[in-house]
Amino acid sequence: MLMLSGLIPSSHLSLTSTSVTMASPSSTSPALLLLFLLLSSVSAEAPDCANKEDEIACSSEDKCVKLSYMCDGESDCAGGEDEDPDLCLVFKSHYRCEKEEVACRRGGELECMGLREYCQQVEPPCEGSLDPRMCKVFQDNTIHRFPSIVIPAEGVPDPSWRMSEALGEDLVANLNNTFSHPDCPEMYTMVADQCLSVFSVGKVSWGEARAFCRVLGGDLLTLQSVEHFTTVLQHLQNHQLTSDFWLGGRQREKGRGWAWLNDTPMVMGSPYWAVRRYDECRARNVTSANMMTRAANGSTCYHYRQAPEAEQLGYCAALSYQHYFYITDEDCLRQKSPLCVAD
């Protein structure tokens, strides 16, 4: 058991390897709840991609992607770092080699070597001009955007502390934007005419997110109109937030339709729901005024389908950063940030 002695009374919070126990909502302070959510977010296990030669981790989310998916024109990481233009320029630039290889010259002869193999060498195994930032990606086994990678000069201390301090400053700015407004309760900020708690620094399941909001004296956000949706979306984008956020929408049983927490039906389709691309294409059907159904546009086959109608992924609604904060259907046990509205 990990006890936070001197910070929190043991009667309020204890952490074990399998559970978190908190005081009742009426006696739990917002500061204590903030610490709980931060700790529960940190405890989530990241994916282990290290033992998979053909996979590498995203830096923006807990996800492994195949090397062959890097720089293929489709973002597989939430932050899009696998399609970073600078990274992809190096990843695909070596003449006559596959995009996962580096062109090596030995004695005037050109041969192709796997990037991992090349970067594992203490000294460059052959003549070449591979950007050292690419080797940093493979050494960390994590995809980073090239502009964020700093290669220290020999004998110069690692400048990562500067990046760490910058991240700390970003955290403070996000907390100030999330938990401060004179006309809102503690831990809320004003967005249009509502007090919202945009908790981007903690990630929990849908049920835990709702419990968190209720302890704060609110509930998960429900979208009231297109104008309301646009205002929330612009707030998230303007503050450069990159988390996925749980909403107060769900499908209690398959086939019963999606509804908000107050049982108001959720509007399907555009402009609310995200569009996903699939390898398999399908024709789309349209229904005419006389209720006749037919294939659209001469049975043209389409690769894009709108959530949650096709191949539903889950039963809880979220604003997805990968999809520019349009709504997606998600597994309710996935780890995402709470988006609360005050009562």
Describe the structure.
The protein is α+β, with helices and mostly antiparallel strands. Among the domains are: 55-148, no CATH class; 180-281 and 299-342, Mannose-Binding Protein A, subunit A (Mannose-Binding Protein A, Chain A, Roll). Helix content is 22%, strand content 24%. It has seven helices and 19 strands. The chain has helices at residues 30-42, 85-91, 115-119, 132-140, 160-179, 206-215, 226-238; strands at 13-15, 20-22, 55-58, 64-66, 101-106, 109-114, 142-143, 189-191, 194-198, 218-220, 245-250, 259-260, 275-283, 285-287, 293-295, 301-306, 316-320, 326-330, 337-342. Strands 8, 9, 10, 11, 12, 17, 18 and 19 form an eight-stranded mixed beta sheet that branches. Strands 4-3-7 form a three-stranded mixed beta sheet. A two-stranded antiparallel sheet has the order 1-2. The two termini are 36 Å apart. Mean pLDDT is 77; it is low at 1-26 and 42-46.
CATH superfamily of one domain: Mannose-Binding Protein A, subunit A
CATH second-level architecture of one domain? Roll
DSSP summary, beta strand count = 19
Radius of gyration (CA) equals 24 Å
CATH class of one domain: Alpha Beta
List keywords for this structure.
C-type_lectin/matrix_domain, eight-stranded mixed beta sheet, disulfide bond, three-stranded mixed beta sheet, 343 residues, Mannose-Binding Protein A, Chain A, LDL_receptor-like_sf, C-type lectin domain-containing protein, single chain, 19 strands, alpha+beta
